[in-house]
Amino acid sequence: MYSCYSCGKTYSLLEPRWRCDCGGFLTLPENAPFHRETFANRGYSIWRYRESYFLPPQAPSVSLGEGWTPIVSERIDGMEVRFKLDYLMPSGSFKDRGASVLVSLCKALGIEELVEDSSGNAGAAMAAYCAIAGIKCRIFAPAYTPDGKLIQTRLYGAEVVKVPGTRQDTNDAVLRAAAATYYGSHLWNPYFVQGHMSAAFELWEQLRGEVPHSLILPLGSGGYLEGIFRGFRTLHLAGLVRTIPRLIGVQAHHCRPLHEAFLLGLDEGAPVEVKPTLAEGIAVSRPPRAAAVLEAVRRSGGTILSVSEDSIRAAHGLLLRYGFFAEPTSAVALAGWLQLPPSERENSVILLTGHGLKESEKIAKMHGL
Questions:
Q1: Secondary structure of residue 141 in the 3-state scheme
Q2: Residues 6+ apart with CB under 8 A from 151
Q3: Radius of gyration of the chain (CA)
Q4: Helix, coil or strand: residue 134
Q5: Which pLDDT value is given to residue 168?
Q6: pLDDT in tens, 253-265
Q7: Which pLDDT belongs to residue 145?
Q8: Domain ranges of the chain
């Protein structure tokens, strides 16, 4: 059953719904099944852990082989740090984890068309998985979005709807469309979050049961962090880990509603002045699942940081020096790690989330080429 985080109302998983009637976001049970014997002989993708996603039994696995991205160890600033290269996915970003699971749900429910709002990785991921599922996909994006950012989405066959005005105008437009068409939202839908649980399961297997002291990742809407927390919580409830890693979300200082909320002890995102940032992939001023994200950070004993534009640029240059061609948004995680005291940097894994080839022209300008 779905449960509303705000009012507690429940709904059947077979109902094509993305939020509660009260306007609150939906969650799935925390006690997901996880049994080693069910995946011991399965292939290495996120579908190794199918039972943990709470999908209806009839749901197909709409997959492009996503997941099981490599972990690479490096020595930076005199300390060892590990990177999980989640940009090495079929559509070029970690969002493939969520898109694969959400589109599988849509296929099970007989949904033939959906809408989504994104100008970047989420739109490309949903377009890719809808293409192989045979689901018509319309992606709403602000009219000011450069065409180059939308080429991948269009090439997958999705219709791109450009909306004049602000990012909020785009959100309003997709909500109007959602009155008649299923809203396959990476911001709202709990099944998109479920897909991100797979990153925690992979880390547990790849590190042979070792739990890192800290996981550090870019933080925009927060679904990635929420999903990873749910994944480690599942492992903990199954008795497979004794602790959950400290989750450290990193925002750009120019768009930091969750950082401010964390500092102020709030349960919702804080209103902030938003400025353009190199990390535009996490420039989410009003994350709808903020309460669950903040709860996950606090329950893990983690924190939320914000980093400057100069530190993002410097951290991205450092990633390039080590051979990681990630998008600028990924660099906030390394910038955040460098901001920590040395004692808190030990035994950390940094998650790199989007491929640099998506923004090669921007990267060239960033570094003066």
A1: strand
A2: none
A3: 19
A4: coil
A5: 75
A6: 999 999 999 999 9
A7: 83
A8: 71-94+189-366, 112-178
CATH topology agreement for domains 71-94+189-366 and 112-178:
yes
Distance CA 120, CA 122 (A): 6
Quick check: 31 pLDDT over 90? no
Find out whether 220 and 226 touch, Cβ atoms under 8 Å. no
Distance CA 174, CA 1 (A): 26
Question: pLDDT tens for residues 119-146?
Answer: 889 999 999 999 999 999 999 998 888 7
What was the pLDDT predicted at 195? 98
User: 48-54: long-range contacts (C-beta < 8 A, 24 or more apart)?
Assistant: 48/198, 48/201, 49/197, 49/198, 49/201, 52/194, 52/197, 52/201, 52/231, 52/234, 53/101, 53/191, 53/194, 53/195, 53/197, 54/13, 54/28, 54/29, 54/194
- Residue in 137, 156, 154 with CA at minimum distance from that of residue 146: 154
Contact between 93 and 87 under an 8 Å Cβ cutoff? The reply is yes
Distance CA 48, CA 224 (A): 19
Pairing of strands 79-85, 71-76: antiparallel
Assess whether pLDDT exceeds 90 at residue 171. no
- SS3 assignment for 225-292: HHHHHHHHHHHHHCCCCCCCCEEEEEEECCECHHHHHHHHCCCCCCCCCCCCCCCHHHCCCCCCCHHH
pLDDT band, very low/low/confident/very high, at 170 (cuts 50, 70, 90): confident
Residue 258's pLDDT is: 98
pLDDT in tens, 108-119: 999 999 999 998
Residue with tokens 């709030």: 266
pLDDT bucket at 147, cuts 50 / 70 / 90: confident
Please give the torsion angle defined by the CA atoms of residues 361, 363, 364 and 367, in that order, rounded to the nearest 10 degrees.
160
What is the fold, at CATH topology level, of the domain defined by 71-94+189-366?
Rossmann fold (3.40.50)
Candidate CATH numbers 3.30.200.20, 3.40.50.620, 3.10.20.340, 3.40.50.1100; the one for domain 112-178: 3.40.50.1100
Of the chain, the percentage scoring pLDDT greater than 70 comes to 100
Q: How many CB atoms lie within 10 A of CB 29?
A: 11
According to DSSP, the residues that pair with 80 across neighbouring strands are 75
Element (H, E) at 317: helix 309-321
Burial 292-321 (b: 16+ CB within 10 A, else e): bbbebbeebebbbbbbebebbbebbebbbe
